[in-house]
Amino acid sequence: MRTKLYSVAIASFLLHASAAMAEPVQLTGAAIKTTLPGSVLKLDTPLGMVVPIRFDDNGLMSGDAGQLASYLGSRKDRGRYWLSNDRVCYRWFRWFSGEQHCLAIQRDGKRIFWQRDDGESGTATLEEHHKPSAPTRKNVTASKPVKERLAQRDLTPPPHRSDRKPYLGEPVLIKLPTPAVRPRKKRAALAEDLPKSRSPDVAQAITTEQR
Length: 211
Known about the structure:
By secondary structure, the chain is an alpha+beta fold. Helices cover 28% and strands 27% of the residues.
């Protein structure tokens, strides 16, 4: 008799334990923040179709209505989502007339149970969840010191090319011939050699120029 009672008690305990384990867990704001970004939720619809919604890490979300496009007005749409206390709020750009709603979320493994602020509820499947991978840093070799790099630089000026042709528009210096200057002695001798028949004014002008 005691063995039978013990068996019933153990079976009852296991049933209650399994029921407790199967109960969905209410997600807090911190849990939602680590669950939704980078995940895809496949929302179950009353028509038996699934609408996948992708939650990006930058606060944007996108959805594909598929065969339900006629009900939502377009096949694809985008929107924004954010946290408010322990709920996730969202607003589509075109679907549902762009109205804002907030959801309370419960999770049981990959199953998601949501309840909207207007009382509507439903289920979804957490299709994939991945944390954003940190960008890989390339191996950067240590650069040489500045003094060493300057020492390796070739600071010698380029050789001068005499056969280089001037560019268009470049000024070209032209050396003009210097005017010949008659020496003072030659001018004095010239004044003395002038014929006396010439006018004395010419000889006087030459003599004055010498001074």
